[in-house]
Amino acid sequence: MTDTENKPKKVLLVDDDYDLLEQNKMLLESKGYKVVTADSVDSAWKIFKEENPDAAVLDLIMEEHDSGFILAHRIKRDAYGKTIPVFLLTSATMVTGMKFGVTTGEEKEWINCDAWFNKPINIDELSTKLEECFETRKM
Amino acid sequence: MEDHRPRVIIIDDEKGLRIGTQRLLQSENFEVDTAENGMTGIKMATDFEYDLAIIDLKMPDIDGISVLKEIKKAHPNTICFIATAYASYDTAIEATKLGAFTYIPKPFTPEELLRNLNAGYERRLLTLESERLKREREERLLELAFEKSRLNTIVNSLADGVFVVNKNGELVLFNPAAIKYIELNEIILGEKILGILPKKISELLRKILDNPDFENKTLSAEVELKPDRELVVEIKCSPVPHPDGSLAGVVTVIRNITEMKKVEYVKSQFVSMVAHELKTPMAAVLGFFNIILNPDLKTTPEQQTDYLNRSRNRLQGLVEMVNDLLDISRMEMKTKQRELKELNIGEIVKGTVDFLELEWKKKGISVTSKYEDNLPVFKADNNEITRLFTNIIGNAIKYNKDNGTIDVQVYTNKNYIVTKISDTGIGMRPEDKARLFSEFFRVKNEYTRNISGTGLGLSIVKRIAESYSGKIEVESEYTKGSTFTIYLPFTK
Question: Does the predicted interface ipTM exceed a cut of 0.85?
């Protein structure tokens, strides 16, 4: 971590697939983050309120096809939550040809997150983006 | 007609004149009959339609005017001549009023007679021809009117909406279905309608109407007339050309494709669900490989073995899922060749329990069972029925607690062979029970996290049961257990 603060940043990681949850936890920890995990929208919200994470990385499709969207929305509406970066993970892009992005105004309005990543994640890209977001928020 | 020799009848009581005239006319290629008095003349000239009739005005039995009347009444187109020496101006007028072609004073010269007869014959041919043309025209008009009303009936009966506008955008034809689809209550022929049509339809029409070099090409579009796929139509606009090739107007056909769109939507939902269900385990396997191969992570050999084992499980799950999907697809397409045999459901259930013995013994589960004697046979495909019970009993083992029990009962109830399979497993919440038979749905909670499955097993069970007009019921209590009851109908 390039951050000058000594305290490691805390990331909330949410996925209902336990293999992926474990893998991503390990990858994030390898980059020096402290990771708290949840496997559903409800448990994630509880942990979010208890732990006040510095960032959230959410799987898009969990119990419902839009669980990730809903959780991202809830976090972004929260007084504290709106100050932290929220990333969404999806496996949809490659197979279905669906493309997600947060570039157009419409997408920014509907998709309440700071970045998208395809599964399995490239941890270097994800951590670089996280650091960028932290930097922007400090300024 | 021209090929025929003109047929003449001479009605005269004067024998010399009769014969003289007959000879003269025969030499001029007329076909000639004669009548020696008025009554015979009437009989002959009404029985047969002569082209020409020469009628003596004064005859002993009946006067020529009466003969003329009778002939004209029967055959208005027979050209009649009144011949007499006692002519008076008044008689001549009366005779022509009654339909005589002309009046021939006696004595007449052969030239005089022939001139009159030829003129009369020409008139007859013209009259006949004009009558034929008139008749033909009337027949054609009748046909046309019939054709038009038939076409109207056909167009009006079409389920597809049809309307035609001319090149000014004025409505020239429509059927009731068109009005229904575009919801125009008061529509008047001749009215400009582009402004009141749904936007997409008028845009399509304008593309043809506003293009002077229109190509003879049909434009089509799908239009959602009511939101959320409630009413979707396909619009096809085709230019209607004049015979010279210039644009006369546009014919628009509106077809309801709502059902098709609904099926398409469900299908695409299913495809994206399948894609997600396939991609997730692949991402997990790929993720494990990335971790093992990443030198920075320095995984231990024990970790690597664990990850490889878990990758293998995920791949195994993928293979099962593809098999399940293929089964579903075969069932959907009904291509699966069913081998219908008379089956004993009790034996199949018992066989399945035995087949899975290793699985339930591994978890320390005990199985109790009761099979009714003399169960009626059930005609079905052995593989499908075995698959049905393997999925249900497999779940009863998979989702049971260690050292739990499974109770199996097969019995008849009215028209059904009933199979009841109860377990003492983790059960489910009402909200999970409601979605149990949906494709890819899997109950996710702390108990199920280590249980693998495709989320297709019960969906297949339901499809099989329903394909045999059977049904399946579930009772469940969260953390206590579930009971699945399968009803298969039998014929007595």
Answer: no
Give the residue numbers spanning the domain of B315. Answer: 261-333
Contact criterion met (CB < 8 Å) for A96 and B272: yes
Which residues in chain A have their CB less than 8 angstroms from residue B267's CB? Answer: none
Using a CB-CB cut-off of 8 Å, the residues of chain A touching B272 are 92, 96, 98
Q: How many beta-carbon pairs below 8 A join chains A and B?
A: 59
Q: Answer for the pair B280, B253: CB distance below 8 angstroms, yes or no.
A: no
Residues B328 and B344 placed together within one structural domain of the fold: no
Q: Looking at B100, B133, B166, which one is the last position of a domain? A: B133
How many domains is chain B built from?
4
B140 occurs within a structural domain: no
Tell me the per-residue pLDDT of B419-445, one tens digit each, with 9 for 90 and over. 999 999 999 988 888 888 887 787 777
- What's the CATH superfamily of A10-138? Response regulator (3.40.50.2300)
B246-290 per-position pLDDT tens digit: 888 999 999 999 999 888 888 887 887 788 788 888 999 999 999
In chain B, which among 343-372 make CB contacts under 8 A with chain A?
A: none
The answer to whether A27 contacts B291, with C-beta atoms less than 8 Å apart, is yes
The answer to whether the CB of B260 falls within 8 A of the CB of B282 is no
Whole-model pTM: value is 0.58
* Cα–Cα distance for residue pair B125/B77, rounded to 1 Å: 9
Q: Residue A42 CB: number of other CB atoms within 10 A?
A: 11
Asked whether A72 and A112 are in contact (CB, 8 A), the reply is yes
Residue B344 domain-assigned (yes or no): yes
